[in-house]
Amino acid sequence: MGSAIFTPDHMKEYMLPAGHDPARETNPRAGQWDPRRMIGPFKPTRVLSIVGTNPGDYAVARGFSSALMGVQSDGLVAIRNAYVYGSARAYVYRSHSGRFGLVNSEEAYQNLSRFLLGGLRVEVGLHGLDFGNQSDRIWQAEIRLALRWIPVLVHEQTANHYCPVDLNAEAKELATPLSPVPLVTIFLQPREQPVCRYALDLKVISLKESGGILCFDDHLEQIGDWEDTLIVDVALDTEGTWRTVTWQWNSTPSRRIADQEELTNRLDWETENTSDSQWHVSIPVTDIGRALLGNDTRLELDISQWD
């Protein structure tokens, strides 16, 4: 069969329910089947898309595939085609396959183990963005998600890897290949540790645009307009379910964050509880962040039981 298995006509045979007419599917390109859209009763929210962002280490065809696909890919699949609409996404700096590929990577293992075995699903959104009189700038964000005891990042979107978050689209809640809505989805996996610590690193960068051309007059390469890290502790009980959640921005402690056993802010679940298994809470960004991104800028967390 060879490469024919990747042709649209053949893929339709095993990806579409029997009798489905792709011409009836809602699509901006009417009548053209889009494999990123799931058809049938299986919900996209039950899917995890792991998106590779490193084309350089994909050595198949002596690097021809990587050169053909370009920088916004894993060497074989473009970032814009590597996810299911409505699914959780994890961006990792890995190539499609090979020695530095996704399949055998620590990043993929850590994401999949939490997706399959985790007890809580946390969707983090960035809301209240207001660029005011700076709307003529291209606004982007870099995001890194780290977990204590794990030697790799489980999510990484950066300009250096050609996949920063498009904040202009994020402000309009437009889900695009580079603008996940929600911003990032985390699956908490109960372990024997009594406290699980997570760190969400955010860097906001911008470039001025004039007449469709980017201006670099005031640009400092890879230097953020605002950068901080949200540290979150999830305390577990003996049965592995969450008990309390505390948080703190990394810019606020007076000593090394690793030496701080307890974080200063606690989320009050009793007042935020909306049901027996779903919660919604907000965390404001720092004063410097709000001065740049808007007075109402905040991280919103939607938390639900996951099984």
Number of strands: 14
Provide the gyration radius in Å: 21 Å
Beta content comes to: 25-35%
Order of helices and strands: HEHEHEEEEHEEEEEEHEHE
What count of structural domains? 3
Q: How does the major sheet shape up?
A: 8 strands, antiparallel
- Give the class from helix and strand content and strand pairing: alpha+beta
Number of helices: 6
Cα(first) to Cα(last) distance is 37 Å
What would the average pLDDT be, to the nearest integer? 84
Question: Helix coverage percent of residues?
Answer: 10-25%
Low-pLDDT residue spans: none
Question: What gross morphology would you assign?
Answer: globular
How would you characterize the overall build of this protein?
The model has no long low-confidence stretch (mean pLDDT 84). The protein is globular, with a radius of gyration of 21 Å. It folds into three domains: 1-33, no CATH class; 47-116, no CATH class; 118-307, no CATH class. It has helices spanning 8-15, 64-69, 106-117, 167-171, 269-272, 287-293; strands at residues 48-52, 88-92, 120-127, 137-147, 155-157, 165-166, 184-188, 195-210, 213-215, 226-236, 242-249, 265-266, 278-284, 298-305. The two termini are 37 Å apart. It contains six helices and 14 strands.
What's a concise summary of this model?
The protein is 14% helix and 31% strand. With 307 residues, it is α+β, with helices and mostly antiparallel strands.
List the topology elements:
Elements: H1 8-15, E1 48-52, H2 64-69, E2 88-92, H3 106-117, E3 120-127, E4 137-147, E5 155-157, E6 165-166, H4 167-171, E7 184-188, E8 195-210, E9 213-215, E10 226-236, E11 242-249, E12 265-266, H5 269-272, E13 278-284, H6 287-293, E14 298-305
Parallel strand pairs: 1-2
Antiparallel strand pairs: 3-7, 3-14, 4-5, 4-6, 4-8, 8-9, 8-10, 10-11, 11-12, 13-14
